[in-house]
Amino acid sequence: MARKDFLDIASLSREEVDLLLDQATPFKELFTRSVKKVPALKGKSVLMLFYEPSTRTLSSFEVAAKRLSADVIDLDVPHSSVTKGETVKDTVDTLQAMRADYIVVRHKMSGLPQAIARQTRASVINAGDGAHAHPTQALLDAFTLREVFPDLSGRKVLIAGDILHSRVARSTSRLLLTLGVEVGFLGPGSLNPRSGPEGIRRFTDFDEALRWKPDTVYLLRVQMERQDVQYFPGVQEYHRVYGITRERLDRIQGEGVYIMHPGPVNRGVELCHEVMDYERSLINQQVENGIAARMAVLYSLKPQTDLQDADQDRT
Amino acid sequence: MPIRIEHKVEAMRLLIKGGKIAAEEGPLVPGDVLIIDGVITAVGEGLDVPPEAQVIEAEGKIVAPAMFDAHVHFREPGQEYKEDIAHGTEAAINGGVTGVVMMPNTSPAIDSPAVVRSILERAREVSRIPVYTSGCITKGRAGGELSGIDGMRQLGVVMLTDDGDPVANPAVLRNAMEYATPFGMFFASHCEVAELSGPRALNEGKISYQLGIKGSPACSEEICMDRDIRLAHAAGARIHIQHVSSAIGMETIRWWKQMGAEVTAEVSPHHLIFNEEDIGDYDTHYKMNPPLRSVDDNAALLEGLKEGVFDLIATDHAPHSAFEKEQDFVSAPNGITGLETALVSLHDRFIASGQIGWDLIVKRYSAEPRRMMGLEVVPVEKSKPADLIVFDPAGETTFSREFMRSKSVNTPFLDKTLQGRVELVVRGSEILLQR
Fold it and tell me: CATH number of the domain that B289 lies in?
């Protein structure tokens, strides 16, 4: 794969997806060994540029980079309004001084990693931008599903929750469609856009969605902080209408349906706490696979930072 | 191509030879045009060349009334780094436009006789074309207290608008309408319900979903449009709806005209030519408000233009500096420049392909906007003052930074080459532009 950046799912070909998924497998096997490190990125540096607070994704990338023997620089970006109004060029100028080979970006503004990528020779990896994309999450989700269903084609995944504000829903659905999975979106009418992507079944009723016979229900985190105006009356009502209640868990258990969640979960909102002990919950597996998938991404990209030095010598 | 600027010549005699004359009705008519001391003294085929006359060969070219843009942002006072009256009016001339109406969202806002006076004085100093300005409905465009309406009227202001921040309280707007209508003033509305528009970045639809940015639905514009026309109708006021962007918006105007409301409406070249799909990978050159909508809306707007639902074409020339447009898509300001590209882009897209004729452009981008402002129209006819352009339909224009006269170049046409070229602009005894 000769790709410099990893920004979204839309620009990946089926071949690239398969390559990345295949690459994640040996990395995951590595975790069972006593030495969990390979020297693949020795001498390279990975810059963590998280403009939005994150612990899970940030640590996952850090572990992934360290297991590839890269140096990790965590830029302590103020999570405040400083970022709003900063031009992309200002950001990139700051980054040049760090001389990183890989830049992992998370930003609340959709499209910002793309803009950075256009202006740097380093490989840019999108760790989540606004409601636009979260492609490494999508990759780990597909990898997790493939462990359960070696042939994903024709399987059905129901993505449930706040579709409107979710970059996970956008990227994961896109990748699953690429892999031949049938995707349904379930959510309150106010959070489940009618003008969404083509080829996705839209449900606003949980029972109707379950009658569609999904193999997996993928729950999204209800993000109250992203809601500028109220989209549903309250979390209790949300849980009753759109959450995995104990009753729904019984039904799901009876039908052998798997459950996924990008984390962190809101117990009592999108799921009741019994789900965490459900034998077909893939939530912890997703976390572990996140490291392997991110290693695969870092390993596959081709930064052009060596060319940058050549350019500078010339001028 | 270098531009020669020739200032007022005494005893100016100009013969434009062999062109085809465009009017707001009817087909192109072959004819020479003789201008003496700023007045068209003869129009017809095979005119003799008078002694000492300068002759412009216009074989295969169009001679048309000069354009008039009823919606421009010149950013003066307050944001002269984006645009000012001197550059804005030169940009107008560069695009074949010889009259403009400024919007009042300057800093300070144009909400008092003092600001109006300073703008008109500035225009007299630096501009080679007439500059008109609208005035605010409310002080500081804040939607509360009414602005100095009568004082502005005495300086010639006829159009009142709060521009991009429409008056939210309908009672305030209604009172303003009832107050100012007896003065012969009219209202212009940028239509939007702010609460529905989110960050005012792009149309709500499949592209906003894909890009992960909350969209501004067409109903936000349509609700406000309907409200404002309804209020004007009730108040006996005349209202002009700016930059209609959606099919239902166009039909709303049509319906209200059938109901007998005193409403006029404009459509912008960018809403006719571009749509949300053009945004691609977050290209902020396609970010404006109202946003670009769908391909279907493009078609409906063109239909509305052809059928006379839209009275005029206006650009909403909205300059922004490069560093502002280089921000992320949500933070970047709304707006696209238009004065220099409007006529050529409309020619390239719609006239050259035979979808519309010159008569429509003359009617909608020259005559009707002047009528709306209470000005004389400028047909290429004997004994009318000279206010015309020569346009080469076979020529090309490359909208390079060097070509542009505006301080800003926030347009998707930057560095693009389009079919058609403004070759000559004459107003009175002055040749404003000759390529």
Answer: 3.20.20.140
Give the N- to C-terminal CA distance of chain A in Å, as an integer: 31
pLDDT in tens, A262-296: 999 999 999 999 999 999 999 999 999 999 999 99
Asked if the ipTM is above 0.90, the reply is no
Domains of chain A by range and CATH? 14-134+289-314 (3.40.50.1370), 136-286 (3.40.50.1370)
- Contact (CB, 8 A) for A209 and A161: no
Task: Say if B243 falls within a structural domain.
Answer: yes
pLDDT tens digit sequence for B267-287: 999 999 999 999 999 999 999
What residues make up the domain containing B243? 66-372
Look at strands B186-189 and B159-160 and give their pairing: parallel
Question: Which helix (H) or strand (E) covers residue A238, if one does?
Answer: helix A235-242
CB contact B281 to A (< 8 Å): yes
Angle between helices B247-258 and B218-235 (to 10 degrees): 20
| Residue A315: pLDDT band with limits 50, 70, 90 | very low
Is residue B220 a contact partner of residue A206, using CB atoms and an 8 Å limit? no
Active site annotation includes B316: yes
Both B326 and B187 in a single domain?
Answer: yes
Question: Which of the listed residues B340, B372, B404 is the one where a domain comes to its end?
Answer: B372
Dihedrals φ, ψ of B290, to 5°?
Answer: -60, 150
Long-range contacts of A32-36 (CB under 8 A, 24+ apart): A36/A67
- Cβ contact (<8 Å) for A197 and B209? yes
CB atoms within 10 A of CB A78: 8
User: Contact A170/B210, CB-based, under 8 Å?
Assistant: yes
Residues 154-183 of A with CB under 8 A from B: 167, 170
The pTM assigned to this predicted structure is 0.92
